[in-house]
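Hi,

Apologies if this is the wrong queue. I'm a grad student, and the batch job for Ammonia monooxygenase from Pseudoprimorskyibacter insulae produced an output file that my downstream script rejects. I'm not sure whether the problem is my script or the file. Here is the sequence I used:
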Amino acid sequence: MTNRDLVGLGLSLGIAALGAVVFWLIGFPSAALTGAATTISVAGVLGVTIVMPVWLRTLAFVLLGLNIGSGVTPDVLKGAVTWPISIAVLGISLIASIRIARIGLTRWFDFDRRSAVLAAAPGHLSYVLALSVEAGSDTTRIAVVQSIRVLFLTLCVPVLVSHLFGATGMQVLPPQVMGLAPAGVMLGLTFGVGAMFQRLKVPAAYLLAGMLVSAVGHGSELTPGRLPDWATVAAFMVMGILIGSRFSGQSLSQLKAVAWAGVWITVVNVVMALAAVGLCLWILGESPALLIVAFAPGGVEAMVAIGVSLGLDPAFVAAHHVMRLVLLTFIVPALLAAARSKG
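Support response: The file is valid. Your script probably expects a header line. Output copied below for reference.
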């Protein structure tokens, strides 16, 4: 990294830390994540260059994965027999969400059919943007619309769940802090597994690698304990920077031009997710707070992290968000092909 990059990184971390502290002081849920995302978003729109090196982003994903995985116990996994039902409901809601949002984008916001499908997708942003470039669509416009959805859900889901249902009070992570030796071993293993997952194009590769390594280690009782709180807070803050940095370089005029389109897809995505939550609540009788976080169409890492911070079953939340990405990998190209055939 150059000196300029180091200064930019220091400034970005400082802005994120300021947001985290302010949100913590006012009692905002998941303060490190939501506070950092808010202040970084504002700074980016105001013209501040946000710097986030790949190595730091990867490290944050690894730390989050390790901490989340420490709460995945055999008792937690006993409920996995009901997951196929809720995942099937999730798949149906994704298709309905894209179709409804696409109609509004083409009728009211001057999107062509293909761009509308990509902008309406409730997640898998990097994959959607790659398809956008390949299709020759307006990638910047799609990215801004999608970023509005991600930021809105990151800020609103913790507030909604904590105010409507309160904290569960469940301790999903071990009370004791992990020792340096096992933590070092798990970090090394996670980077190795994450690199393999990345080559295999597994979604959220390093997050899932951390969860897998940690779940195996804790299930076998070889690596008891969780990461220290400062490491988790730092990882949450980096996640906030990543979410907020999507607005970096966007002018107010650019945001105004697509803001209502972003609001539209967010509303449709949220309404369809809540409909799916209602159906699963009726069929399975799961906790509404758990279902809301599991079905919320936000960023995978952010939603899983929020689930842990609110004391919700980490395995259930992670499984549904990962499956959302897997399902979208097939749903989006299919709907894109259908849009092409209709011209």
